[in-house]
Design a protein that fits this description.
With 229 residues, this protein is mainly α. Helix content is 72%, strand content 4%. It is built from 9 helices and 3 strands, in the order αβααββαααααα. The protein has a 3-stranded antiparallel beta sheet with strand order 1-3-2.
């Protein structure tokens, strides 16, 4: 008796998964860089054209993005990018602060090596450049530099689940940041707040770092006109 293998369906399934992964990464990239901004509505045909990916792959990507809180699916209409309103902003930044505080404490307690000198230099250069004036390029650099410290703090979590949740929230915060571009005064003050966190990490003082993180959280909310709860 001749036995038939299911090699073709397997290849088809693998190709579909690969395309879905590529579509999701492309979607997240455009959400993170502000191409798809907060509150934007797109029909599925529009999103397919925007991502230049097959419809099935885009549908899978949308499901993943919705599960991560990045999009809302509007049945029979399309999708809407996450609304970066005051309540969502407060919740996302508060969650990041919780991750940051715990990461900082663990990093300080375990004595992990971090590229603190590099982080300090990058923050000081950006602070000094912003004091001389801000361009769109510098605003994007400010977002990248800002995230570099938060990503370093997340390294201290040492938990696969926590890291996954942090990464999902990181994408939401990126949408929020693109909605509220950095101005010169805020770049300078934010970098100063980050430098205090870095100094606490250099001193291996987890409690001091956590206090600096909470101060940074409160100042960010005030700068954006969002009252603390």
């Amino acid at each position: 008796m001749t036995r038939f293998t299911a090699t073709k369906p397997l290849r088809t399934s693998a190709t579909a998964e690969l395309q879905a992964g590529r579509a999701f990464r492309a979607l997240v990239e455009q959400l993170r860089d502000g191409t798809l901004g907060s509150g934007m509505f797109l029909s599925m045909p529009m999103l397919v054209e925007q991502l230049e990916m097959p419809l099935a792959a885009v549908r899978d990507a949308v499901k993943r993005a919705e599960a991560g809180g990045l999009l809302t699916v509007l049945p029979k209409r399309g999708v809407m990018v996450m609304d970066a309103g005051p309540e969502v902003t407060r919740e996302c930044l508060d969650l990041r602060a919780m991750f940051d505080c715990e990461g900082a404490r663990r990093l300080a307690a375990k004595g992990h090596d971090l590229p603190l000198a590099e982080l300090r230099d990058a923050h000081e250069r950006l602070r000094d450049a912003a004091a001389r004036g801000v361009s769109p390029e510098l605003q994007q650099q400010a977002i990248a530099t800002d995230l570099s410290l938060h990503d370093a703090l997340a390294e201290g979590l040492e938990s696969g689940l926590a890291s996954k949740l942090y990464a999902e929230n990181r994408n939401r915060v990126a949408i929020i940041q693109n909605q509220r571009p950095f101005l010169a005064d805020r770049i300078v003050s934010a970098m100063e707040e980050h430098l205090e966190i870095i100094a606490a990490l250099e001193a291996r003082d987890g409690d001091r770092a956590a206090a600096a993180i909470r101060h940074h959280f409160d100042k960010t909310l005030r700068w954006w006109g969002i009252p603390a709860t």
